[in-house]
Amino acid sequence: MKCLSPSILSADFSKLGEQIRLLDEAGAQYVHIDVMDGSFVPSISFGMPVMKSIRGCTDRMFDVHLMIEEPIRYIEDFAEAGADIITVHAEACKHLDRTIQAIKERGLLAGVALNPSTPIEMIRHVLSQVDMVLIMTVNPGFGGQKLIPYTIDKVAELKRLLVKNGWKADIEVDGGVTTDNVNRLLDAGANIIVAGSAVFQGDIQENVHAFLDRMNQV
Predict the structure, then answer these.
(1) To 5 degrees, how large is the angle CA 35–CA 156–CA 143?
(2) pTM above threshold 0.85
(3) Cα–Cα distances in Å, from 189 out to 21, 158, 169?
(4) DSSP 214
(5) C-alpha to C-alpha distance for 33 and 30, rounded to whole angstroms
(6) pLDDT tens for each residue of 149-196
(7) Spatial CA neighbour of 11 closest among 122, 28, 3
């Protein structure tokens, strides 16, 4: 299933609850929540209190992307804050397998993310365990960046590997995604699309509809 996961990192935080309701009404299936610690990535964003405060605004899937060092320390906290999917970076985990299992033990979907230059081979041995793989299409840490072209080929490589081995996992892409390039990513094999500034700049509902219309063409 193809899903749109707008990133609230680009939202207006003075109107966050209202903007999440607009996403919901427009038909976005997920809400993407970027958590940054200032160590794994340069920026610091937000954490459990913000998640708890908006959980009552929507019943959409909370797609939580942890850009933090050793995220296993906080899995329980994010589960209690309302996460449905928790994605951790392979580069940030000393024991990736153990971290994936910690997510699953709490009844949540488990995702693993890769930075643009990290090879897919790094996660080959856990691909049968995860529910989603997030291919970063920009270097993480800041919104509004342009998509790195070679990451589209990386999505296609991952898709081939999953099909070849009969592994079932969603492929999510995050970074620089617009209505102009989303179909190339879908053609390559992605099915969950993260978009931040392309959704929140301008009319949110019109932008969501434009994405969903493009996504339904593939």
Answers:
(1) 30
(2) yes
(3) 29, 8, 11
(4) H
(5) 10
(6) 999 999 999 999 999 999 999 999 999 999 999 999 999 999 999 999
(7) 28
